Automatic annotation (TrEMBL):
Keyword Iron-sulfur on entry: no
Sequence positions that bind substrate: V137, V138, S139, G140, G141, D170, G183, D187, N276
Source taxonomy: Bacteria, Bacillati, Bacillota, Bacilli, Bacillales
Name by which UniProt lists this protein: tRNA N6-adenosine threonylcarbamoyltransferase
Subcellular location: Cytoplasm
Pfam families registered for this protein in UniProt: TsaD
Entry annotated with the keyword Aminoacyl-tRNA synthetase: no
Cofactor(s) required, per the database record: Fe(2+)
Protein family membership: Belongs to the KAE1 / TsaD family.
Taxonomic source organism: Geobacillus proteiniphilus
Cofactor: binding comment: Binds 1 Fe(2+) ion per subunit.
Name of the gene: tsaD
Record's keyword terms, sorted: Acyltransferase, Cytoplasm, Iron, Metal-binding, Transferase, tRNA processing
Length: 337
């Protein structure tokens, strides 16, 4: 297509109300995010009912702000894209219905986007995607290795069998008495300590690209409990460093092995845990084994939930003619493939 394509993206899958306008799937014209972190912090995690209420309060303001910053009118848009799943069903419904209303009112194509596809396409806002590629998706609810031969085609070659990496981070952080969300706090402490505590690494059966972090989480909780029983105290910096070393080792090793086996041209890092400094540094170091494979890591603002990534993924679906109708509903368990 020669003409420019402008897509409004809307994201409300969890606890961020976000809207963005993206040009040609690559250029961010606006990317507005209203975070609810302070509201959920006192509960130690996201409360779905509170998240939904906040989305209802914020959605119109956030969309208006995104359109104003972009300097684009609704008549100048080509499509409206929204996260259709997975996520918290009440939260998703707010975004889906707002997007439907806008698409209907302005006669625009309506596009449902998979949340994980959005995280992967956040990388397209940084660099051109080169196929075949491999994406390591690491977030609070997901840990997956996704192989892509072309735009919009996803093959999950590895996924978590129990806790996602981000989930394990939050649970270990809680055990260490760290505030929510725990990931950034563990990452910070890990850089102050040394990985001197022997913790397990779940490699699973040979050749598997699946992940498992439940055993590691249990090992951390047991170590802390046993130390307390003995009247000893474990330095939280050493525990954070040891826990992070175990998680990162498995994630990075399996990613590089898969990149070699599938002979990809590019490796993408995606998801909220992609903001983790330890993971970013270790992946950059390990990827030196594959000098012909490009590593793309998005900036921190595009790792956490945002709507620019939804607009980027939505642009591809728009150009492929994969539009939804107004019967589309939010799906909290929407499969990627």
């Amino acid at each position: 297509m020669n003409e420019d394509v402008y897509v409004l993206g809307i994201e409300t899958s969890c606890d961020e109300t976000a809207a963005a306008v993206v040009k040609n799937g690559r250029e961010i014209l606006s990317n507005v995010v209203a975070s609810q972190m302070e509201s959920h912090r006192r509960f130690g995690g996201v409360v779905p009912e509170i998240a939904s209420r906040h989305h209802v309060e914020q959605i119109t303001l956030v969309i208006e702000e995104a359109m104003q910053q972009a300097g684009v009118s609704f008549a100048g848009l080509d499509a409206v894209a929204v996260t259709a799943g997975p996520g918290l069903v009440g939260a998703l419904l707010v975004g889906v219905n707002a997007a439907k209303a806008l698409a209907f009112a302005h006669g625009l194509p309506f596009i449902g986007v998979h949340h994980i596809a959005g995280h992967i396409y956040a990388n397209q806002l940084v660099a051109e995607m080169k196929f075949p590629l491999l994406a390591l998706v690491v977030s609070g609810g997901h840990t997956e290795l996704v192989y892509m031969k072309e735009h919009g085609k996803f093959a999950v070659i590895g996924e978590t069998r129990d806790d996602a990496a981000g989930e394990a981070y939050d649970k270990v952080a809680r055990a260490l008495g760290l505030p929510y969300p725990g990931g950034p706090h563990i990452d910070r402490l890990a850089h102050e300590g040394e990985p001197v505590i022997d913790l397990p690494r779940a490699w699973l059966e040979e050749g598997s690209y699946d992940f498992s972090f439940s055993g590691l989480k249990s090992a951390v909780l047991n170590a802390l409990h046993n130390a307390k029983q003995r009247g000893e105290e474990i330095d939280p910096r050493q525990m954070a460093a040891s826990f992070q070393a175990s998680v990162v080792d498995v994630l990075v090793t399996k990613t590089v092995q898969a990149a070699k086996e599938y002979r990809v041209r590019q490796v993408l890092l995606a998801g909220g845990v992609a903001a983790n400094r330890g993971l970013r540094a270790a992946l950059q170091d390990k990827m030196k084994e594959l000098p012909d494979v490009e590593l793309v890591i998005p900036p921190l603002s595009l790792c956490t939930d945002n709507a620019a990534m939804i607009a980027a993924a939505g642009t591809v679906l728009y150009q492929q003619g994969k539009w939804a109708d107004l019967a589309l509903n939010a799906n909290p368990s929407l499969p990627l493939v």
